[in-house]
Amino acid sequence: MNMSPLPLGAEPTDGSSVRIGALVPLTRPGWVEAGRHLLAGLELAVGDVNDAGGIDGRPLELAVRDSAADPHRAAAAVDELARLGVAAVAGEYHSVVARAAAARADALGLPFLCSSAVLDALTEQPTEWVARLAPAQSHGWRIYADFLLGAGHSRIAVAADPSVYWASGTGILRDHLTPRGATVIELDMRELTPTAVCDALVDHRATALLLLVGHPEPAVPIVKAVRRDQRLAEIMIGAPAGQPEFSEWAALLGDDGAAIPFLRYLPERLGPLGVRVETALRERLAQAPSFVAFEGYDTVTVLADVLRSHGADRERTAASWPRVAVEGTRGQIRFSRTPGISVWQWAWAPVQVVDRDPAKPDRFRILHTG
User: Fold this and answer.
1) Percent of the chain beyond pLDDT 90?
2) pLDDT (0 to 100) of residue 11
3) Alpha carbon separation from 309 to 110, 140, 239 (Å, rounded)
4) What is the distance, to the nearest Å, from the Cα of residue 45 to the centroid of all Cα atoms in its chain?
């Protein structure tokens, strides 16, 4: 296989593979289990594309780079992948990392299809080069806020780490909940221990605690402390960012990790493609696939369709986002310009609020859809 670097925007003419760069968190402090699921979806779809004849007879290939939840590392990887001549960049789970990758891709004129990151402002200015599959944070978190209101919660504490992602989430919740009579109480996790969080929840008479923090630290110790505090027996713990989705959560927390509602991006019932992909992903991962694995599969499905229709030319790929109409694992994917969103956006992937069933923590219960 010819692996020599190509000029920016160049297309191989020697029958070699068509390459897509993939940004995936595979090492700490990245969310490694999310990265493993994302990569499984990307790789499965590449295999399916190649089994169906590839891109006009040329095999599709992934050039995988570990982002490790590091924005600088991701930006450097985009530079490297651009020099290698990839037709596009795909993937990424962490929002702050995806934002750095999107900015660099935009500057280089390299198409980037973001799989999983939800931060509304992926780029500072509107761009033609970037598209996204995951729902924007403002969309999904407003649905989560509606769930909280429907469940009767009006005093909601937010335990938040410092980051643009968590700050954005807190702002979305406050803007949506406060006009509807709810109070949002911010707890700064730079200053509080898990025990101090419990005391603050009692002092503020909170009925719900939302974990806007990293996993496993400090999310797991906070959950353990709250579950063991008899004063907080009635409080609901929530995790809108999806920490309980993955098996590591259940392994670390056991029964304590159940009944903690979170967002995931799946329909109530998968169609035929989704069912087939779910079976294949389950075999590949040796566990039930998360929604992140489906996002990975859909990412490659979209890019393969674009590359078949328009070739591996970067400008033609970027120009094709508004013409995409692809059947993915979770519905038909089309991109549009959405108010307040700077990139081409699938509006929207299906959104659910789910939790792990206390009676059987490896089973999920759908609590709310949006």
Assistant:
1) 95
2) 40
3) 18, 32, 40
4) 17
pTM above 0.70, yes or no: yes
Non-local (6+) Cβ contacts of 79 within 8 A are: 104, 108
Q: Which pLDDT band holds residue 233 (cuts at 50, 70, 90)?
A: very high
Q: Which residues pair with 344 in a beta bridge?
A: 131
Find out whether the peptide bond into 249 is cis, omega within 30 degrees of 0.
Answer: no
Q: In whole angstroms, give the CA distance from residue 115 to residue 303.
A: 11
Q: Which two tokens stand for residue 275?
A: 């069912």
What are the start-end ranges of the H helices in the chain? 32-51, 71-84, 95-108, 137-150, 164-177, 194-203, 219-227, 247-253, 272-285, 291-310, 314-319
Which pLDDT band, with edges at 50, 70 and 90, does 15 fall under? Answer: low
Distance CA 250, CA 236 (A): 17
Beta-carbon count within 10 A of 80 CB:
14
For residue range 184-216, what is the model confidence (pLDDT) as tens digits?
Answer: 999 999 999 999 999 999 999 999 999 999 989
Token digits for 180?
């509807």
Find tokens 């590359």 and name the residue.
307
